[in-house]
Amino acid sequence: MTRNEESKTLTQRVPIANLALSMSVLALLASPATAEEEPTAVFLDPVVVTPTRTEVEQLEVPAAVSVVTSEKIEKEGARSVVEALQGEPGVRVSYYTEGNFPIVQIRSSGDAGQFQNTDVLVLIDGIPQVNLNDQSYYDQIPFEAIDRIEVVRGPTSALYGRNAVGGTINVITKRAPSEREFSATGTVGSFGYVKPSLSIGGPIADNINLLVSGSFEQADGWRDQTEREAVDLFARADIFVTPEIDITLTGRYFDLEQETPTILPLLPDGSEVPGVDREDSFNLPGAESRNEVLQLAATLNYEPNEQLLFTVPIYYRHTDRILDRDGSFIDNVNTTAQTFDLYPFTPTSEESIIGIAPRATWTPTERVELVFGVDYEHNDAEAGASNTFPAGTNFFTPITVNYATGQFLTDINNLDTVVRRDGDFESTVMAAYAQGRIDVTDKLTLTLGGRYDRQERELVDPLRPNPRVEADYERFTPRAALNYAFADNLNAYVSYSEGFNPPFGGAFAFERAGAEELDPEVATNYEVGVKYAFPNGRGFLNAAGFYLERRDLVQTFRIDGINTQINAGGLDVFGLELNGAYNLGGGFTVSGNYSYTETEWQDYVVGGTDFAGFEVIQNPEHLASIALDWTSNDGRFSIGPFIDYVGERFADRANTVTLDDYTLVNLQASYKPLGNDRVTLRLQGLNLLDEEYLTRTELDFAGNVLGGSPGLPRSVLATVGLKF
Q: How many angstroms separate the CA atoms of 614 and 661, rounded?
């Protein structure tokens, strides 16, 4: 059987577990409820802001969007934004190494050989979280202060600009309460996990409400060299100046220190190297990642009348990151000598970002809503990197480890370090956008919009082959959609949207002369969807089909010993998504989703090999999740499983190595002994079947499988929560 035939077979084969899941969800959705029961709404948050920059009911949004509520986060025991996103429709999460460098893929975007997290945009209250390398980091989000997370699948560059290719994740923080509130939680769990958190809020003066929250997290980690400590502080003040004017002030501080393990060595066929335990790590002692973030923001809202609203956010963010002597990436696995090599690398970056994003929302009639805005952001940064190697050699000389004994065959007490990159980086983004929603008839709504972006960049670094680079690009991004309401609870839509990625790949990609000659990646998305809300708020059912074309992808390859950015051809993505939830009655609620995503390179030449017709690595064709929750009549007790399925995916560019599918069976239970929210006891069991799996693989410069990241084994979390 040829590779194309094998690929076709994989495409056509839907795992039995997924098929059963989809059929079960549909059957449950059709189950009648008894007349005596009082239905409970499970369409928990019908209003979203991310897809349009205005408040719109999910049912009427011409885009695929889902909401992760704070209640869902607490119930399933998520400890980070990435864990909270696991199991969302069309979303897959993985890690480069345990607990480090989380990667989020939406509709296969997010990790296609480029720097991670460059084509899924992350926002906090609408403020972009993009660094000098065009990456979004997920470990610096104020997790304790999350009200909800809005996930928009598909390009949104017509509203938000760069990086919004596969989707957009907008973390909405909690409003300061108008009455005094106090909450405290304490969580302990497997592998030395401890996390106390505290939140207090309420009015502090007339028309001023304040919320302050914070947490401290500590964990030993289940793999060697994965110890973690993090401090997370957040404050928000809502100030009501007049009935027409209010101001929101937010501040957050995050400080993380985490050891970095090596990736797990793998054989070329993707199997694990004999003699290496999944818990083993062979990195240099003291290798760790550190991330310190301070962000301040002020948002003015002025509503002079019912037709007009002005919103002016101003923000400042300072980040200081270092990956200290990191040898997590291994090379030259030798199963005969039982050795592999490390090339410790220390990248650093310190960034100061200021931005302002004023916009106006005008509703001249009940049938028309217009949004106009401009964005300005300036990043003034320093970026550096150094290599560590055996003394008396050069930075191409590795540090060799015997993985059978854990012994370093190189004297790690006698090492040299050379600084190879040390430069000043500046980036300025200027943009203007407009979008209109027009009710053409009582049932038909038209959405039209577009955005113009211009980015100017400069890097000055005398240590680089190309010591000075000045580059800029321009891009206009359109969007159009039609939404038709067949009934009050049934809508269908068609949409066309575009997204783009900057053409340079960030400061660490400015090694080649002529970087300014690269083109931005452009993605075009054609989508059709149906949204249905069951009567009496019992549930909902959404379905979407899309075709995503990505062209001129900016990829990083090692060419003539230099990391080089190139426009690497085209990629086509086809997908179907189904998600829903339903109140079955008797205290039972079921929710689930299923996603099918098929990728195919159209033009992708690496090292003289054309991979056209091959599939993107790390991308499962099948994703599925299902959750069943039972709550007692008095609301005191809740219990239920939540299960995530990740299908097979290719581990190498040549599509010769396949990673097995895996299913994570989890369980949550909670008890409220006082019958209210004052005291909550919660227990979560994760990966209860203790399934061994790999979340992703890493390749050598030739494109062969070299290592991977093993998934979290069975673990337990126990939480006590107090609210007053």
A: 19
Q: Give me the number of domains the chain comprises.
A: 1
Q: How do residues 648-658 score in pLDDT, each as one tens digit?
A: 999 988 899 99
CATH number at residue 72: 2.40.170.20
CA distances from 661 to 27, 520, 539, 629 (A): 25, 34, 30, 25
> Predicted confidence band at 20 (pLDDT cuts at 50, 70, 90)?
very low
Amino acid letter for position 530: V
Measured CA to CA, the distance from residue 217 to residue 229 in angstroms comes to 6
Amino acid type, 360:
A
- Which tens digit of pLDDT belongs to each residue from 586-638? 999 999 999 999 999 998 877 778 889 999 888 999 999 999 999 999 999 99
Cα–Cα distance for residue pair 519/624, rounded to 1 Å: 36
Q: What share of the chain is helix, strand, coil (3-state, %, to 5)?
A: 10, 60, 35
Q: Is the model more confident about 558 or about 690?
A: 690
pLDDT score of 659 more than 60: yes
Asked if the model's pLDDT at residue 524 lies above 90, the reply is yes
Confidence band, pLDDT 50/70/90 cuts, at residue 491: very high
Expressed as residue numbers, the domain containing 448 is 3-723
Helix (H) or strand (E) holding 359: strand 359-365
Query: Where do we find the tokens 């090292």?
Result: 607
Q: Are strands 167-173 and 120-124 parallel, antiparallel or unpaired?
A: parallel
Question: Strands, DSSP E only, in 15-90?
Answer: 47-48, 56-57, 64-69
pLDDT at 47: 83
Q: Which long-range contacts (CB under 8 A, 24 or more apart) does 88-91 make?
A: 88/151, 88/593, 88/625, 89/64, 89/153, 89/542, 89/577, 89/578, 89/579, 89/593, 89/595, 89/623, 90/64, 90/153, 90/167, 90/575, 90/577, 90/595, 90/597, 90/623, 91/151, 91/153, 91/167, 91/623
Residue 11 phi/psi, 5-degree rounding, is: -65, -40
